[in-house]
Amino acid sequence: MKTPQHSPSSEKLLEGEEKQCLKEPPTITKITTKKLAFIPLLFLIYFQVSGGPYGTETMVGAGGPFYAILGIIFFPILWSVPEALITAEMSTAFPGNGGFVIWTHQAFGPFWGFLVGFWKFLSAVINLSSYPIICLNYIDPDLPVFSSSTPHYLVISVSTLFLSVLNFTGLHIVGYASISLGILSYLPFLVITFFAIPQIDPRKWVLLGQKGRKKDWPLFFNTLFWNLNCWDNVSTLVVEGVTQPSKTLPKAFLSSGLITCFAHLIPLLASTGAMKIDLDDWVDGYYTIVGEKIVGKKFKRWVRIGAFLSGIGVFQSQLSSCSYQLLGMTELGLLPTFFSARSKRFNTPWVGILISTVISILISSMKFRHVTSVVNVFYSLGMLFEFAAFISLRMKFPDVHRPFKVPLTKLRSLIAMCCIPFGFLLYVVCVGNPIVYLVVALLTMLGILWYFCMRIFQAKMWLDFNHVMKKLADYENLGYYDQIVK
Hints:
Elements: H1 8-23, H2 38-49, H3 57-63, H4 65-93, H5 100-108, H6 110-139, H7 149-168, H8 171-196, H9 217-227, H10 238-241, H11 245-274, H12 287-294, H13 299-331, H14 350-362, H15 368-396, H16 411-430, H17 434-460, H18 479-485
């Protein structure tokens, strides 16, 4: 095979660019962003992961009360704890706005870093479109005009645009707003639980199913997974939003994990134990009927208001992660620099916010069940590489300073910790329907095409990119990479 030939002038130019890249870090504008206090960070993670029991009713209908209760108890231990531990270690060892994109970029190279970022971004923005839909599922009975297709889509579009405005004002504003939204959105479930206590029959909790009704395990696990994942989303906010991440993140993950688990479990025990169980009734929005039957007819409106507030909180927190992820991918040189444009007044990544909002509006006409399945498959594909990157970076760079470290040192122990989550991710990927696989395949091919187009644009200098193409292993000073991506 012949080696490519360069003219003397082009060789000098290439040498000059290489020296520039290695010796002179790119000029970085000093960013001043207000950090999140502990309580706002806790509620921000809570909304990124779940936002409350709204949308979990399908789990009871698909698997029965016993398996729903079992899932809420054990799934956080088997899935959420490993994901949170890995996120805490990787976010502090390889900090940057790109979060999980940085980890996979360092473990497997820029192509896989970009593709994982593309999958996770699509998962997040498609997810964004589902929260206005959940809100309308609760509000529809009070406003029948929304049940027709055109008004329904218009309301979703307008509400999505309106909700995105808060993100422009700053991450700390979103964090403090999350506190109020979290408390107010959960109050209806505390009231339902209080009124349900005298009526609870624990024997109903062990109901395995209903005669003549088959269990829908794909729906069950998709709903469970959808309501208790995304712990890694906060990794895109660590650099600009978290003070002392090595100490703050583990505490925030533990607190948010406990709150999330009990926030789901308490109303589930109360409602299934106090009501006559008909699994056909347990669909999205059924908690409004639960509130009406247990507390009173007028109370269902309070449940709907709570669902609306929860949807706002989840939307705001996930939109923050999306926008900062695009910012991080730009800093890595995976996207053109205009993706990193910030608001002059609020210093927020307004281009990332705008792109995420527009995409979520465009795909909001999909059926909710398809949205959930597509989100879960994209998310699972990305997480498979994140777990693999965690193991790979532990092997490749054992001496890199890790301010927080998963308390396991042997490789087989780390692999054992990842086995159950890894197997569950494979299951989620494999239980999709043909429509889901078609959407995932087409969008993945679009992402691959986009990556190579960006490489061509970068080589031809048609667009401006950050020139951060070297991997961590290429530098003797391991701290140099951190200086670039911050």
